[in-house]
């Protein structure tokens, strides 16, 4: 058994409709898996990271429930509904969740590519390239503490399951699906300037 076998939904299983609309329920279920991934890091230093993701997932889910099955079916429909209502809660949640997912994606992708690199180095580089520019002087130390608390590479991969070859194969597929979703959301938010002022 591996970590990926237990996930209720993997990013490479998330439905993408016409016009690159991402299914809300499936995406949020997959995002919960990223939040839970940090449990394997085995440090309370990651609680702020997990709480941030959980809070953003909650904002999007609340908007989805309010809009109902049709208008809340895709992430894009939720953002467009908020534009009409002059609201930003779920849009802000999606923006920050996507930033957190991009950070996780880059950290894990770098680590699986650089097999001789420790997890803390991969995630420190990922943080510098992704989230650091959005964080102020009070938030950056919290994330730096989390980076320092990353487990050793061998310990993390052992927790992800065995055999290692299967874990690496499943991780690569999961990252491919995650990247596809993240790129679609980033393009969508940038194209309409929905993230302006958030």
Structure summarized in a few sentences:
The chain is an all-alpha fold. The protein has a single domain (3-10, 22-186), classed as Glycolipid transfer protein, GLTP (Orthogonal Bundle). It has 8 helices and 2 strands; from the N terminus they run ββαααααααα.
General description of the model:
- With 198 residues, the protein is an all-alpha fold.
- The protein has one domain: Glycolipid transfer protein (Glycolipid transfer protein, GLTP), CATH 1.10.3520.
- It contains eight helices and two strands.
- It has helices spanning 24-37, 47-71, 75-85, 89-113, 119-129, 140-148, 153-160, 164-191, and strands at 16-17, 21-22.
- It has a two-stranded antiparallel ribbon.
- Strand 1 and strand 2 (21-22) form a beta hairpin.
- Helix 1 (24-37) runs antiparallel to helix 2 (47-71), helix 4 (89-113) packs across helix 5 (119-129) and helix 5 (119-129) runs antiparallel to helix 6.
- The longest helix is centred in the C-terminal third of the chain and has 28 residues, at 164-191.
- The N and C termini lie far apart (41 Å).
* Number of structurally distinct domains: 1
Helical percentage: 55-70%
CATH topology name: Glycolipid transfer protein, GLTP
CATH superfamily: Glycolipid transfer protein
**SSE order, one letter for each helix or strand:** EEHHHHHHHH
Shape: globular
Distance between the termini: 41 Å
Specify the CATH architecture.
Orthogonal Bundle
Any idea of the CATH class? Mainly Alpha
Instruction: Assign the structural class, choosing from mainly alpha, mainly beta, alpha/beta, alpha+beta, or little secondary structure.
Output: mainly alpha
Report the sheet-strand fraction: under 5%
Number of contiguous helices? 8
Widest beta sheet: strand line-up? 1-2
Sheet having the most strands: 2 strands, antiparallel
Low-confidence stretches: none
The gyration radius over C-alpha positions equals 17 Å
| Overall mean pLDDT | 93
Give a count of the beta strands, DSSP E runs of length 2 or more: 2
């Amino acid at each position: 058994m591996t970590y990926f076998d237990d996930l209720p939904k993997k990013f490479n299983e998330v439905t993408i409709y016409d016009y690159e609309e991402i299914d809300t329920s499936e995406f949020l279920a997959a995002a919960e898996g990223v939040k839970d991934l940090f449990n394997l890091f085995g440090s309370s230093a990651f609680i702020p990271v997990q709480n941030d993701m959980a809070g953003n997932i909650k904002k999007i889910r609340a908007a989805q429930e309010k809009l109902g099955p049709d208008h809340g079916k895709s992430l894009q429909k939720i953002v467009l509904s908020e534009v009409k209502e002059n609201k930003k809660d779920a849009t802000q949640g999606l923006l920050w969740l996507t930033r957190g997912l991009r950070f996780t994606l880059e950290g894990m992708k770098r680590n699986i590519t650089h097999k001789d690199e420790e997890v803390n180095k991969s995630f420190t580089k990922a943080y510098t390239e992704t989230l650091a520019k959005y964080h102020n002087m009070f938030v950056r130390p919290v994330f730096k503490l989390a980076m320092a608390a990353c487990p050793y590479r061998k310990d993390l991969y052992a927790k992800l399951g065995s055999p290692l070859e299967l874990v690496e194969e499943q991780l690569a597929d999961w990252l491919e699906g995650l990247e596809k979703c993240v790129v679609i959301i980033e393009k969508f938010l940038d194209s309409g300037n929905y993230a302006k002022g958030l």
